[in-house]
Amino acid sequence: MADPGLDELKFRDPARARALSAALAREVAAVGHEPVSVMHVCGSHEQSIARFGLRAVFPPGLQVVMGPGCPVCVTDLPEVDEAVALALAGHRVATYGDMVKVPGSARSLADAEAEGGKVDVVYSVQQAVELARTHPGEEVVFFASGFETTAVATAAVLLNGVPGNFSVLSAHKYVPPAMEVVAEMPGSHIEGFLAAGHAAAITGSAVFEPFAAKHRVPVVVAGFEPLDVLAALLKLVELIRGKRAEVANMYPRVVTREGNRPAQEKLWRVFQLVGGRWRGIAHIPDGNLRLRDEWAHLDARRRFSLDISGLHDRAPSGLAQRCICGEIMAGLKQPSDCELFGRECLPDSPVGACMVSSEGSCKIWHTYGGLPDLREVRR
Amino acid sequence: MCLGVPGKVLAIDGMEATVDFFGVRKVLRLDIVDEPVTVGDYVLNHVGFAIRRIPPSEVGETLALFEQVLKEAAQDDLMAADVRGELAGLPGARSDRARAHGSTPAAEEKS
Amino acid sequence: MTRAAAPIERVGLKHGAGGRAMRTLIEEIFLPLGGPVDGIGLAALDDGAAIRLGDRWLVLTTDSHVVQPIFFPGGDIGRLAVCGTVNDLAVMGATEPLGLTCAVVVEEGFPRSDLERIRDSMRQACEESGATIVTGDTKVMGKGELDGIVLNTAGVALTRRMVTDSGLRPGDRIIVTGTIGDHGMAIMTRRRDLKLEGDLRSDVAPVNGLVRAALAAGGEDVVAMKDPTRGGVASTLHEMAGKARVGILLEEAALPVNPEVRAAGEILGIDPLVVANEGKAVIGVRPASADKVLAAIREHPLGRRAAIVGTAIAQRPGNVILDTGFGKRLIAEIEGEPLPRIC
């Protein structure tokens, strides 16, 4: 069997990347108008693009915009406030690392911790359950952020059985409805979408077929290696040029049309879709995943009476009022369009959620220097 | 992290698998992967769960897919021919023999 | 780029991470302690200080070690202490340490056997580097008042030729003496809460012999050196670029990285470029001598994986740019080491 190291290299082979980039440039030129605007909805796609410096090789006529692909960034203020309230009430709150510094109405979980709250960073929901087992005298609340792929993990853990002192505060979100809202936004000129490969591994590529038909835009499911992204973009622009509103799967090694049925089954056994606000963007009908009534006994919102009124004691700061995270997440603006970006708003001192999360476009652009103005740099 | 490199299953104990990522081992849960997983399989990790078993033919299939999409792009461009020539000379270009020992270290180590 | 300047009210973990926050703390609180020095003093914030003594420089450095866990694959706090100090002296150009101090603060209840293990490591590291511990201090704090043990080592050496970290000019080549990210990733996989098992080992080792070889081969053409500890090669290059007012263009494909370190980095979402190294040096060399110096380093057992990884450039002063093979991107000036108590 060939060495897996070599296999990995094949998806990062610069020569293939050059070939794909050259073809992409020709395809974009052949579309007949500029810019050709496409959107991806996954923080990990933006990370991949930024990390490998792909924007420097995208043709200037192609605009690849990041949409609402950062689950932590779109977690709404009241949801963060609920977690903060639980921490301040003396319960142990466990969450994925990125969530800890996201500002709520008045405080973040990090602030709550500084005030004596118990906040634990976990890398998997399994770890949060472990905490409940090792702290039997305490209530352990898992503040569950993440999109549908991550929600499946939460569902699986609940179906396996958890201790009585464990509960879930669900801030899970479901992406396809957000794509609908973004596609319908005035001012949106998106001609095609890249869909997140790992979410599609679960839901299947078929879930995008009604969307593509209704909005008459192509959707291409893409992986995360540089060649995956380039090949998927090439396919997408090809479909745009041919005016074909189809769904194409460019990540067949992981994604199928039907997806992972057992995982879907687990997801919908535990969660239901509820409308809710995605922070800064809009009300997304069916955009939130909340625990079904059968799981009320493990739902933190029903186990505890959460009083978040006391957390609204501060008016949004002047800086917060100038934050344009919402427009950035809707793909209407870029981080560089924000007057606070890189000045008052830095990873050290974030104003909005986009600068906090590792999947937020502002954080990613700040970390990797998002704009392709490094082309002229040479030895 | 979505940017997961597939890992190789070393051992399975009930619903848990010890998975190797180039010498770093992690225990993953198997509750949500939709195919039976055995030792030697490659799986994709998401927050501590294996979400997909990656079939052994994936490399060849994916490379063939890349070549396909290149062919579909602007056909009668002279440059495309050069580019396809460059690709044809690369290791693994023949998808049915993608996993052969044909890859030489020199060819892999492009600067 | 202007910075949000919130004055520091309380010390946070980030102030010990070796990055920008730590520098701010030092600048605000401790820099005023410095005074004029005939040589390199506090204000330079280099790996050590250098005081002119006739036709030579007296080089001084000090480090405290708080690494957690105390014993890790590839080494322990004792080895780290000796090597850290020997290496700081070496990258200032002082490759023959005259003597080291060793001050120990131990928690009540600390096992004798652990102390002996640490002492044996220190002795071993001294033998490898030719250093000698000449004086020390011992303190004990009550149970719970200190986490195990803290070691402080200081070192002193003489050198005729001093090398700072600020001497780069456009065109100079950047050499790293071996694989990057080994120490930081080894420590991270040992931290139980991350639940990663691996065969990663710290690279902790004294590099004074290797640096001596580089200096012998390159002479005056070796213009800048630094040891890439907290914050990794990324932080080190930022400092070298900032102080010399040059940009640095790094070739990702040229960076020597162990596959296990790369894999751990992918899983954890942490770049090997930003994690600590404890047995490496970053060396800036004039282009005419770069190959010669590289060859000399590769002759040394600790330098087999040395590589020329980049070039100083006139554009984008203060920035470090990575050529990924697909495109280019900035390496951001990060907060410092991602995990606390890495060294």
Describe the fold and architecture:
The complex is a heterotrimer of chains A (379), B (111) and C (343). Chain A is of the alpha/beta class and 379 residues long. Chain A folds into 3 domains: 13-69 and 182-249, HypD, alpha/beta domain 1 (Rossmann fold), CATH 3.40.50; 77-174 and 261-311, Rossmann fold (3-Layer(aba) Sandwich), CATH 3.40.50; 323-365, no CATH class. Chain A is 39% helix and 16% strand. Chain A has a 5-stranded parallel β-sheet with strand order 2-1-7-8-9. In chain A, strands 4-3-5-6 form a 4-stranded parallel β-sheet, sandwiched between helices. In chain A, strand 10 and strand 11 (282-291) form a beta hairpin. The mean pLDDT of chain A is 88. With 111 residues, chain B is an alpha+beta fold. Chain B folds into 2 domains: 7-54, SH3 type barrels, CATH 2.30.30.140; 58-95, no CATH class. Helices cover 27% and strands 27% of the residues of chain B. Chain B contains 3 helices and 5 strands, in the order E-E-E-E-E-H-H-H. Chain B has helices at 58-72, 78-88, 105-108; strands spanning 7-13, 16-21, 24-29, 42-46, 49-54. Chain B has a 5-stranded antiparallel β-sheet, with no helix packed on it. The longest helix of chain B is centred in the middle third of the chain and has 15 residues, at 58-72. Chain B is elongated. Chain B starts with 6 loop residues before the first strand and ends with a helix. Chain C is of the alpha+beta class and 343 residues long. Chain C has 2 domains: 34-159, PurM-like, N-terminal domain (60s Ribosomal Protein L30, Chain: A, 2-Layer Sandwich), CATH 3.30.1330; 173-331, Alpha-Beta Complex (Phosphoribosyl-aminoimidazole Synthetase, Chain A, domain 2). In chain C, 28% of the residues lie in helices and 26% in strands. In chain C, strands 11-13-9-14-12-15-16 form a 7-stranded mixed β-sheet. In chain C, helix 2 (77-90) packs parallel to helix 3. The longest helix of chain C has 18 residues, at 112-129. The two termini of chain C are 31 Å apart. Chains in contact: A-B, A-C, B-C. Chains A and B meet through helix 1, helix 2, helix 3, helix 6 and helix 7 of A and strand 4, strand 5, helix 1 and helix 2 of B. Strand 3 (24-29) of chain B pairs antiparallel with strand 10 (196-198) of chain C, so a sheet runs across the interface.
